[in-house]
Amino acid sequence: MQRRFANRLAGWTAVFAVLAVSSWTAPELQAGGLIRAPAVGGVYIDAEGVVTAPPIDGAEALRATWQQGLEPTPAEMEPLTDLRFVSLRKLDEQIAAAKQAGEPLPDAVRYLAGLLRVKHVLVYPPKDGQPGDIVLAGPAEGWKVDALGNTVGMTTGRPVLMLDDLVVALRTAETSNGPGVSCSIDPTKEGLARAQKVSRTLTADQGPMTAARRLEQAFGRQVVTVNGVPASSHFARSLVAADFRMKRLAMGMEPSQVAGLPSYLETLNTRAVKANLLPRWWLAADYEPLARDAEGLAWEIRGQGVKCQAEEDFVNDAGEVKRGGGRGDTDAGKWAATMTEKFDELADHDSAFGHVRNAFDLSVAAAIIAMHELTDVAKLDTPHLSAEYQPEEYNVPKYVATQATFLKRGGKWVVTASGGVQLFPWQIADDQEEVANLGKLRTETASKANKAWWWQ
Hints:
The chain is of the alpha+beta class. The protein has one domain (about 5-75, about 165-430). The chain is built from 16 helices and 22 strands. It has a 10-stranded mixed sheet with strand order 2-3-4-17-11-10-20-12-15-16, sandwiched between helices. Helix 6 (about 190-200) packs antiparallel against helix 7 (about 205-220). Mean pLDDT is about 80; it is low at about 1-10 and about 15-35.
């Protein structure tokens, strides 16, 4: 006599996350220290576009190899500072000079003088015969490579900004108005329906491991979608890596290394689960209103930058998803609130989350420039940043394999589902307030502009 899935597996709850194993090749080191291996940034993306987690074995040896590919940090850039300034006009000239000399870009240029975040956008219109400029400013320090293959601050461990991400943000600023920038990892309707069908054929004598493998095969690959930026860019890779690693933390595939941030599975009340769940987690912008001076020439980007949001969906026998209505008092919502609270600390331990915040910051800065036509105000022409410089390309993320594991509680299954990362930079740039004395920073640093491509 057949029984329902919940009874056949003797009280085990199937939990699906993302596959944690993959084939592995050694990293490639490119001229100038830029790392372009399949396993960079906390994810491994093979030539077919399958996204997995890099193996832990050998991670330190790989990190050392990556580190050797970096040029020594210039001594004057090593100390941690609250504010370092980078001129977009002079940065463009640095790119032009390297191209003319037939040499690779210096790492200092690739990593934007070690900026860790964008805190200020400062505009300098032409004056007294001096050309205009736009300057980005924020905390900065020297850099190294971490175990995820990210280039991070020597003492903070937080990722430095990358020239390639800045270029993508600037070039997509106009098109990001409206649809925004996003990525998602979604199970297919067909896979969900197959899993429902297979779940009804499982028996207790097959054991959890066999049941897990059958369910993984039924679900098949989940689909990765990137919108708003080139899917082959490092910028896109940062979005996918953060989404991927967020779901691994939520589904208990690896520990968060942050006290007070358990996995979603550890907090899930499986006895209260009434139907098969698809908790959706996504990363969204978390900024305060931007501050600006009266002239609109000095801007400050304020706030944590990133928050986690969630919704619990349900799946019927046909694989159709029923939305959970946006309730925040669910187990998934509570986990999202905890992750948001712990995000700063998490970014210290997992640079994939710091990188996605850097991408957010750069998109907001680019939206400020585009929305208020600040390049026209500054009479600024940056041909290499605008068009001529070609960012590195990576394997395009297309799929994520499904992995099942079992909890010895309850009787339903839970699978990570759509959500991903979503950013609407123009909405953030449009939320602003005038702040007295903000322009003081711009006027105090005006004498240093036009002299070097960075200063502090």
